[in-house]
């Protein structure tokens, strides 16, 4: 079931997935710049000279319909009922001070989500609770997410591109009160496992 930490938890998992992918693919070395993944409203971003940034902005939350009986890539316990509590709509944008850097970052983001349209519950938990633990201290908000029961009963995240019209995308950017940047939008459906009481 959904908890008060679900929205932050999903955003934290996506950020860690992007962060790991960009680090493993050596983008920073290829661009010769520092690359950061953030989760902020675009109007609160500060781009330093010589740095590049990929940003995830949760711009809309909707109640999802019951999940169809689509196959799940990992087994669920018996008597479990799948339900999708929330549809989370993200604006993913790239920001850079140098030519082509934003386009390269956005291309990596699109490629990652194309290759991994489903994030399993196991990957979600390993993102929140890495083994061995990372030595660097996490922000208090992220620690609170990891300690919450957010991941309990979470089966998977289903990620699908959203085909917003140019006008709809312009309205999203207008709401952020900042200039448009290279960006794409995705819907993330949060799939929970609910076991009926006996």
For this entry, give a set of tags.
198 residues; 6-stranded mixed β-sheet; 29% strand; 6 strands; alpha+beta; 6 helices
Question: Can you give a write-up of this model?
Answer:
This protein has a six-stranded mixed beta sheet with strand order 1-2-3-6-5-4. The chain has one domain (6-70, 79-194). The relative contact order is 0.23. The chain has helices spanning 6-24, 27-31, 101-115, 121-128, 140-147, 166-176, and strands spanning 34-38, 51-63, 81-96, 118-120, 154-161, 183-194. It has six helices and six strands; from the N terminus they run H-H-E-E-E-H-E-H-H-E-H-E. The mean pLDDT is 83. The protein is globular and about 50 Å long. The chain is 33% helix and 29% strand. The longest helix has 19 residues, at 6-24. The chain starts with 5 loop residues before the first helix and ends with a strand. By secondary structure, the protein is an alpha+beta fold.
Draw up the topology in text.
Blueprint: H1 6-24, H2 27-31, E1 34-38, E2 51-63, E3 81-96, H3 101-115, E4 118-120, H4 121-128, H5 140-147, E5 154-161, H6 166-176, E6 183-194
Parallel strand pairs: 1-2
Antiparallel strand pairs: 2-3, 3-6, 4-5, 5-6
User: End-to-end distance, in Å?
Assistant: 17 Å
Alpha-carbon Rg, integer: 17 Å
Q: Strand sequence of the main sheet, in spatial order?
A: 1-2-3-6-5-4
- Can you give the mean pLDDT? 83
**Which range best describes the helical content: under 10%, 10-25%, 25-40%, 40-55%, 55-70% or over 70%?**
25-40%
Q: State the total count of DSSP E strands.
A: 6
* DSSP helical segment count: 6
Strand residue percentage: 25-35%
Q: Return the domain count.
A: 1
- Uncertain segments are none
Task: Estimate the global geometry from the Cα principal axes.
Answer: globular
- The helix/strand class is alpha+beta
